[in-house]
Amino acid sequence: MNDILEVKKMVKEYPITRGVVLQKNVGSVKAVDNVSFSIKKGETLGLVGESGCGKTTTGKLILRLISPTSGRIIFKGEDITRYGARRLRSTRKCIQVIFQDPYSSLNPRMTIGELVGEPLVIHRIGTREERRRRVRELLEIVGLNPEHLNRYPHEFSGGQRQRIGIARALALQPELVVCDEPVSALDLSIRAQIINLLEDLQDEFNLTYLLISHDLSVVRHMCDRIAVMYLGKIVELADVNALYESPGHPYTRALLSAVPVPDPGLEREREMIVLEGDVPSPVDPPSGCRFHTRCPIAISRCSKKEPVLKELASGHQVACLLTAPSELSTITL
What is the mean pLDDT of each run of 10 residues along the chain (333 residues)? Predict the structure, then answer.
C-alpha cells in the first residue's frame, strides 16, 4: 500500500500575549511539536493520548482548518501545507471529517436534507434533483430512512445524528476521513453500531481513517496502527497488536493498564499503573523527556536529553532513552 498522507516534522505554535490595546508577545505554546507519521491507503491510524496532548489540533492541521507553524503535510504526493483557499477547495473534497459531538456539529435550523446536501451545494455538484437523489442515497447508506430528509436534527437521537454527520462526510466521496472522537459522546449501547458502520463503510468505499480517540478499546478494535501522543509529541508508533502486546514506552504502559479486562480473575491479578502528578503545562514543558516528571523509571539523564523516535522492531518506534530493542518485552514499571 502506498502512503496517502505523510506528515513531516509538523509544528503548531500559538503565541501568548498580554495587554488589551498594545498586545505584547510574552511566550508561546507548542500544541503540536515536531510530529511525523504516515497513513497508508485503506488503513486506520489511531491517534491516542490524554486530553490536551494535541490530538485534535493534529486533525485540524491535516484538514487545513488551521495552518501549521512549520513542517509539511503531503496528501497523495502533493504538499498541501501552503495551499491557499482556492487550491484547498479541490483538496477538501478528498479529506472530510466526522466531528465528536453530534449535537453541536449539526445546524439546528437546517433540515437533514440540507445538512447532508450542503457539501454538494458548496462544490456545485449536480442539479437540485441530482443532489436530492444523492442525499437520499447517503441516508440509506448510513441506515436512516430517506423519507426523513425534511426533518430537523432535534427530531433524532444522538446515534442517528452521528449517522447524519457520517452521511455528510461521505457526500463528496472522500478518500481520507478524520474521525475526531466519533463515538465518545454516544451511549455505550450505540457505540458498537457506529463503529460497525464506520468499518463497513471503509470496506465498501476503500476509505482511509485517522481515528482520534482516548478510548483504547475502540482504538484496538478499529485501528491497524496506533500513534501515542504526550504533550504535543508522538512517544510511540506501532502496529496495534505489537503495541498492546509489547508496549515500549512507560506512558503507553500506563494508558493500557487503565483499560478494563473482561475477565474478573485477570482484572484482579493485574497491576494498574497510577501516574503521579499532573500533566505539565504546555506553556512551560519539562526539559529533556517531557514525561520524566511522571515516569516511574526516569533517571537523571531523562531530564537533560530529549528522546527521539527510534526503531525497536519492524514498524515499532519508541521515544524513550531507557528502552532498547532487547528491553522491549522485559521493561517493567
Answer: 90 86 81 95 94 92 94 95 88 93 91 96 94 96 94 94 96 96 88 94 96 90 95 95 92 86 67 78 89 90 92 90 56 44
Instruction: Name the pairing type of β-strands 78-79 and 70-75.
Output: antiparallel
CB 113 within 8 A of CB 137: no
The cell for 221 is: 478494535
User: How many CB atoms lie under 10 A from the CB of residue 112?
Assistant: 27
State residue 84's pLDDT score: 87
Pair 47, 55: CB distance under 8 Å: yes
Q: Where are the alpha helices (DSSP H) in the chain?
A: 55-63, 85-92, 112-122, 128-141, 158-170, 188-205, 216-222, 240-245, 250-257, 264-269
What length is written for the chain? 333
Distance from C-alpha of 220 to C-alpha of 52, rounded to nearest angstrom: 21
* Pairing of the two strands 176-180 and 208-212: parallel
Task: Please count the other Cβ atoms lying within 10 Å of the Cβ belonging to residue 77.
Answer: 9
Please work out, in degrees rounded to the nearest 5, the angle formed at the alpha carbon of residue 2 by the alpha carbons of 40 and 68. Answer: 60
SS3 category, 308 = coil
Q: Which residue in 160, 308, 149, 317 sits closest to 226, CA to CA? A: 317
Supply the pTM of this predicted model.
0.90
Question: Per DSSP, what are the bridge partners of residue 10?
Answer: 35
Q: How is residue 235 written as a grid cell?
A: 512517544
CA atoms within 13 A on the CB side of 141: 24
- Confidence (pLDDT) at 325: 47
Give, as one character, the DSSP assignment of residue 147: G
Q: What pLDDT score does 307 carry?
A: 93
Using CA atoms, how far apart are residues 62 and 74, in angstroms rounded to an integer?
9
